[in-house]
Amino acid sequence: MPLRLPDRLPAIDLLKQENIFVMDDTRAHMQDIRPLKIVILNLMPLKITTETDLIRLLSNTPLQLEISFMKLRSHTPKNTPIEHMMMFYRDFEQMRNEKYDGMIITGAPVETLDFEDVTYWDEMQDIFAWARTHVTSTLYICWAAQAGLYYHYGIPKYPLQKKMFGIFPQMPLNPQLPIFRGFDDVFQMPHSRHTELHRDDILAHPDLTLIAESPDCGVSMVMARNGREFFITGHLEYAPNTLDNEYKRDKDIRDDVEKPKNYYRDDDPNKEPLVTWRAHANLLYSNWINYYVYQETPYDINKIE
To answer: Can you tell me the distance from the alpha carbon of 261 to that of 143, in angstroms, rounded to the nearest whole number?
Structure first.
């Protein structure tokens, strides 16, 4: 089944070139199907790129999904045309009374700041609280994972001596969980962050379950409320060239930038990246949609609580 997307969203044409079946609103309204409603709070600077990355993964399911995009009233993005934001995004306040089967909250380039120093922290707290009663299952990614764990459970983040940057092996700690259905004993995950979570803090909290970690980059996945919340510290959604673009951008600005680990063929930045995470990324998002959204959400979406 296709994804149901807003008319003229740039990701539609990009993904059709990859033979991914997407459907705009005009055609979708002709079908008598109750699609799963997924809302994405996109905090990343390059919004169109992140939209495309996430939609690519959400497309790998037989279920019809209706995708909406949320933005913050308290923050104006600098790297995305205002016309794009006005056409495809709505403020949280406009969506506050709606309910959704699933939600994805992305990372944001503010991780070196204390949470309370982030200019839109008050609005983020409102959204975190709202998701508890208006969404069946929420994925928190990178900074959002740290912010969500801090807000809901008081888990602190810690600065790293140097950036965690590259592709790192992860181990599922409970392979029987539906989120890991079909996974191998080890899977790869991109990371790009300056802060971390400590496993002892997660293990000490009775409401949290550490479900995946890495000997190289530590805590990678935490689950709460029987899968109504997942906190992912990396970026399985990243496209093959994302870390390459980030590395070359930063290298042109500073001279202390290290190349991403376990990423380039023969560890040579002049060669193409070796993609090792795409299969598990597709699998994780499909498992999330199937087992934690579709099979858990009520048919009457207004009954989510």
So the answer is: 20
Rg (CA), the chain: 19
pLDDT averaged over consecutive 10-residue blocks of the chain (305 residues)?
66 64 50 80 92 91 90 83 87 96 96 95 98 98 98 97 96 96 97 97 98 97 98 97 94 87 97 97 96 92 91
DSSP assignment string, 53-102 = HHHHHHTSSSS-EEEEEEE-TT---SSS-HHHHHHHEEEHHHHTT--EEE
CA distance 136 to 64: 16
Can you tell me the distance from the alpha carbon of 120 to that of 130, in angstroms, rounded to the nearest whole number? 15
> DSSP secondary structure string, 16-65?
HTTT--EEEHHHHTTS---PEEEEEE--SSSHHHHHHHHHHHHTSSSS-E
**CA 91, 86, 76: angle at the middle one, nearest 5?**
65
- Distance CA(64)–CA(37), nearest Å, equals 9
Question: Taking each helix axis from N to C terminus, what angle separates 143-153 and 121-134, rounded to the nearest 10 degrees?
Answer: 80
Q: What is the pTM for the complete model shown?
A: 0.89
Active site residues: 142, 235, 237
**Residue 11 to residue 271: CA distance in whole angstroms:** 27
Inter-helix orientation angle 47-58/278-287, to 10°: 70
Q: Among 294, 269, 279, 260, which Cα is nearest to 192's?
A: 260
- 275 closest CA partner among 257, 258, 260: 260
Closest CA to 183 of 85, 287, 72, 275: 287
Taking the chain, what is the end-to-end CA distance rounded to the nearest angstrom? 27
DSSP 147-159: HHHHHHH----EE
pLDDT at 3: 58
**What's the longest Cα–Cα distance across the chain?**
57
- CA–CA dist 139, 232 (Å, integer): 7
